[in-house]
């Protein structure tokens, strides 16, 4: 016989009712991606879930504008993670989800970007499965997508980049990053480096040592899609110095690849007359 989520065996004619009662005792958790910062980039589903939340367990990267959309009577639980400083360790966040699911009906776990891209959303989902708590995952626009489109830089472009890779530049306990550098040093693929502000010098050095051109363009974007967005464009050889001089702050991501040369290019000045198609012009 199939087991109930919390491993209690139900037998006899009351099994369906008993199972329903058991389920009714837990709420549902929504693991929601809040996107890169701009509240207009929330999905309609994320907004609907947020507006019906009783409890919101949220990360530091979720913008104030998005937090303003949460109902005034919702319980707010900050678990903000700052670089090198986890306010609530991941295991603690997992337990908070389980705890609140036993007390409330609609629990929102709100994360920057997408919950399943460097968001540890899957670890939280594993814990919910273990505890038999129903949940749903609502995708969010990733920082890579938000930052690149904000600056009109495509992550792929025919003849320039046939693919894109997202990698983490986060070093655990200050140990140098150990990535597969020879596979990453592929100029046909755009490389998006998350959490790489502290390690960008090592990243550039390793990529160049593994054959990537030192003059390949690199775009660094800080606080993308927010009113505080800033960016710098440099080449792989100098990006660490340029980012440092510009005093870019976290969250920052790096787009490494030929596509970064689109920065400032896909742009039309307001007030530019609309171009007349040649055919129409020929016919007067
Ligand atoms: C823990 S990861 C979260 C990624 C997120 N789940 C996503 O889907 O994009 C945090 C990193 O994402 C990047 N990031 C998040 N929001 C950003 C933003 N608005 N601008 C630039 N980078 C951002 C930074 O590299 C930051 O260190």
In brief, what are we looking at here?
This protein has 284 residues and is an alpha/beta fold.
Care to describe what's here?
One of its GO terms (molecular function) is uroporphyrin-III C-methyltransferase activity. It comes from Cohaesibacter gelatinilyticus. The protein has about 280 residues and is an alpha/beta fold. The chain folds into two domains: about 130 residues, Tetrapyrrole methylase, N-terminal domain (Cobalt-precorrin-4 Transmethylase, domain 1, 3-Layer(aba) Sandwich), CATH 3.40.1010.10; about 120 residues, Methyltransferase, Cobalt-precorrin-4 Transmethylase, Domain 2 (2-Layer Sandwich), CATH 3.30.950.10. It has ten helices and twelve strands. Strands 3-2-6-1-7 form a five-stranded parallel sheet, with helices on both faces. Strands 8-9-12-10-11 form a five-stranded mixed sheet, sandwiched between helices. It has a two-stranded antiparallel ribbon with strand order 4-5. Strand 4 and strand 5 form a beta hairpin. Helix 4 packs across helix 5. The N terminus is likely disordered. It binds S-adenosylmethionine. S-adenosylmethionine binds next to helix 6, strand 10 and strand 12. S-adenosylmethionine (SAM) binds next to helix 6, strand 10 and strand 12.
């Amino acid at each position: 016989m199939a087991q109930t989520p919390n491993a209690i065996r139900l037998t006899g004619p009351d099994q369906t009712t008993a199972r329903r009662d058991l389920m009714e005792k837990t709420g549902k958790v929504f693991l929601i991606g809040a996107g890169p910062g701009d509240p207009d980039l929330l999905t309609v589903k994320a907004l609907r879930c947020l507006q019906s939340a009783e409890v919101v367990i949220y990360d530091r990267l979720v913008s104030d504008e998005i937090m303003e959309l949460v109902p005034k009577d919702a319980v707010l639980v900050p678990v903000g993670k700052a670089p090198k400083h986890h306010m609530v360790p991941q295991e603690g966040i997992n337990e908070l989800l389980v705890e609140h699911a036993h007390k409330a009906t609609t629990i929102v776990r709100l994360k920057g970007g997408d919950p399943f891209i460097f968001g540890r959303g899957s670890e939280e989902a594993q814990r919910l499965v273990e505890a038999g708590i129903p949940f749903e995952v609502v995708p969010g626009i990733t920082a890579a997508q938000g930052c690149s489109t904000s600056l009109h830089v495509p992550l792929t472009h025919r003849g320039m980049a046939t693919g894109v890779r997202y990698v983490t530049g986060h070093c655990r306990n200050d140990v140098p990053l150990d990535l597969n550098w020879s596979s990453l040093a592929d100029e046909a693929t755009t490389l998006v480096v998350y959490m790489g502000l502290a390690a960008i010098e090592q990243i550039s050095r390793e990529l160049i040592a593994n054959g990537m051109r030192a003059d390949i363009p690199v775009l660094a974007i800080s606080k993308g899609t927010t009113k505080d967005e800033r960016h710098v464009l440099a080449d792989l050889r100098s990006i660490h110095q340029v980012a440092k001089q510009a005093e870019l702050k976290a969250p920052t991501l790096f787009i490494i690849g030929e596509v970064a040369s689109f920065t400032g290019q896909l742009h039309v000045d307001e007030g530019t007359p609309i171009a007349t198609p040649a055919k129409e012009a020929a016919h007067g």
